[in-house]
Amino acid sequence: MNQQTNNYQSDMAKVKGLGSSKSGFGHWWMQRMSAIVLIPCGLYVLFSLAAFDVLNAQAVINWLTQPVNAAVTLLFVLAGSYHGALGIQVVLEDYVHNHAVNLTLRILTQLLMIVMMLASIYALATILFG
Amino acid sequence: MNKSQRPLSPHLQVYKPQLTSMMSIVHRITGLFLSFGLVVFVYWLYRLATDVLIANEVMDFFQTGLGCTLLYVWVFAFAYHLCNGIRHFFWDVGKGYSLPVVYRSGYLVILSAAVLTALVYFLSR
Ligand code: HEM
Q: Which residues surround ligand 1 with Cβ inside 6 Å?
């Protein structure tokens, strides 16, 4: 991918060192891919929960023991955590100009993303498989 | 050059608020608010699996005035961000850049987000 991007640059642009910083396209693309996953999964979870007659923990647990529901919910959380972390990185790049602070916040964001992914996998696996 | 003296681009000080710029910043704000909401959602999922009592307490909170308001702000934020995200996809493939179309798609996003939120509201009654 990087190789290819470079090929589109004029020689002058290469010499002047302008253009993409090499990993920007991947970030932009994954933001879009995760968004595409989020549209159906988010709507499914949202409307399923809204349609509950009695909304309490046990009812939701019963709903989550259906593998399809658990899978879509998991996909929603995984894609959402990833998409959110990518998005927050852009916001940090725009407003936090101190390099050390920026890097620290970005690492914290990514750590939180991993914790959220693990917690949701653990939770849904526990509900599904006892 | 003294970095902190340089104005931020876009130069918000001299810009009149307009639909386009407002919708752009709202996409960002809803994105951040959704991220915060997702943390709560995951915490609730985790509690569903580990401690049903606490999971029920979380759900009780979202039935109170404050909780319910937060919940519907989140639902609207999701609906808005989703619809405006689709608007972004059109821009990404190079469509919809003329000013009249940007305004029309903007109003369409706000309308669709309101309709989606209303749908969730009536479905959950
Ligand atoms: C729980 C769900 C979601 C969360 C937590 C979330 C979070 C975020 C965040 C934090 C940003 C960065 C905002 C910025 O850079 O200004 C963002 C950007 C974006 N989101 Fe989402 N989002 C969610 C759902 C969606 C959905 C369903 C779509 C569907 C189309 C979407 C499409 C986008 C797009 C296209 C961008 C990039 C906008 C740009 O390039 O300026 N997001 N999101």
A: A 31, 35, 38-39, 42, 80, 83-84, 87-88, 90-91; B 27-28, 31-32, 34-35, 38, 81-82, 85-86, 88
